[in-house]
Specification:
The structure is a homodimer. By secondary structure, chain A is mostly helical. Chain A folds into two domains: about 1-80, Orthogonal Bundle (Arc Repressor Mutant, subunit A); about 85-125. Chain A has five helices and three strands. In chain A, strand 2 (about 70) and strand 3 (about 75-80) form a beta hairpin. The radius of gyration of chain A is 17 Å and the shape is elongated. Chains A and B meet through helix 1, helix 4 and helix 5 of A and helix 1, helix 4 and helix 5 of B. Chain B binds a DNA duplex through helix 3.
Amino acid sequence: MVSFEGFRPEGSEPIYLQIVGFVKRGIVSGEIPDGDELPSRRMLSALLGVNPNTVQKACRMLEDEGILVSHAGAKSYVACTPAKREALRGELVVSGAAAAALKLKEMGVTLEEAIKLISKAWEED
Amino acid sequence: MVSFEGFRPEGSEPIYLQIVGFVKRGIVSGEIPDGDELPSRRMLSALLGVNPNTVQKACRMLEDEGILVSHAGAKSYVACTPAKREALRGELVVSGAAAAALKLKEMGVTLEEAIKLISKAWEED
DNA sequence: CCAACTGTGTTATTCGAGTAGTACAGTTCT
DNA sequence: AGAACTGTACTACTCGAATAACACAGTTGG
């Protein structure tokens, strides 16, 4: 069963996109294995304190991307082949690192300084 | 005069917040010096292709934070003491690095891998 | 002075995200 | 079979972001 313990909606990004991102990152990290069961829409919405429709929208998006399999009446399961997992990893990690690097660089931070800051943040978490 | 050449609204983040962030990063990088003149609301909205009210909302927020000085009828100028600039730098750089580190770490990326990715993204931009 | 700018404020409208409640159909298990 | 779940669909509503079109007051330069 996929655990949503470390997840709380925050910031201005739409909640359903945050849910999608959370699941994707969980898959990439290996924390969410292939075939893992997803909590029901109602269960999950209660756990996260958000509306069932918001959860449904996230699930719909995950299903459209082929990461989730849902059948009416039955439970939902994560379906992610190793190939798709690698593609996801590339998509998320590279874009994430690039976006962070771009913003830091834009502020006049040197590469050495950036590495130092990243390393420091790494420890503190 | 503050240049908005490298700026285009994108993503789900509200445009007025993106404008605020752009100006803040410009100040931190030194690209926008203290006392620099800001394009008028109408001029800026035409340049960015957004509504004057959206620009006004961003300017209002910057003024509330003491980064911008506006007088009715007169032009607007950036007003940022060295101390405030350092505070901004800390706020943006540290939080940016921390957010990047958190996301990468969450995906099971090692620190060495993260540094490698950041370095690569640094060159490519 | 006066025309052309500047910032500011107001009202109305559109649009998407999120909330709320309900209904329906398929499955799973006893 | 029947109860209890499951996903799915739908409508109505609130709220904030963004747009649009103004009106008003202060500043500036010819």
